[in-house]
Amino acid sequence: MTGAGQFRCRVTLQQKGPVVDDQGVPNLDSWVDVATVWASVEPQTLRAREFVGSGANEVEKIVVVRIRYRPDVTEQNRVMYNGHVYRIEAVVDDHMQHRELQLYCSEVAPGG
């Protein structure tokens, strides 16, 4: 478990939700802020993949974000941190103690 002093980063948790534009038209594919919380953000090793046939390489940036326990955080959420967007791949409640969540995340490409 991470001590309180280790939560030094501010991250924003988001979820998909309807956003109504200026003309009253709902956009159901928008992300809305749920909460901004203190966190620990720890970069992990990079994973490299090669697309078969295209010859293109892709590097996937992985981070573990640790936050205080929140029952509303799932893999359907995403994390915004320092101008980067991270998809939550897994939510781990260590030993099911409801004290801290470990969010295993991968960076979303710009525009993704």
Question: What would the keywords be for this entry?
Answer:
mainly beta, Thrombin, subunit H, 112 residues, two-stranded antiparallel sheet, 6-stranded antiparallel beta barrel
Describe the structure.
The chain has 112 residues and is an all-beta fold. It has one domain (4-107): Bacteriophage SPP1 head-tail adaptor protein (Thrombin, subunit H, Beta Barrel), CATH 2.40.10.270. The chain is 0% helix and 60% strand. It has no helices and 8 strands. The protein has strands spanning 9-20, 26-43, 47-50, 57-60, 62-68, 78-81, 84-93, 100-107. The strands form 2 sheets. A 6-stranded antiparallel barrel has the order 1-2-5-8-7-6. Strand 1 and strand 2 (26-43) form a beta hairpin. The chain is globular and about 45 Å long.
Blueprint of the fold:
Blueprint: E1 9-20, E2 26-43, E3 47-50, E4 57-60, E5 62-68, E6 78-81, E7 84-93, E8 100-107
Antiparallel strand pairs: 1-2, 1-6, 2-5, 3-4, 5-8, 6-7, 7-8
Q: Report Rg.
A: 16 Å
What name is given to the CATH topology?
A: Thrombin, subunit H
Proportion of residues in extended strands = over 45%
Tally of discrete structural domains: 1
- Morphology call: globular
Task: Please give the CATH class.
Answer: Mainly Beta
Based on secondary structure, the structural category is: mainly beta
CATH superfamily: Bacteriophage SPP1 head-tail adaptor protein
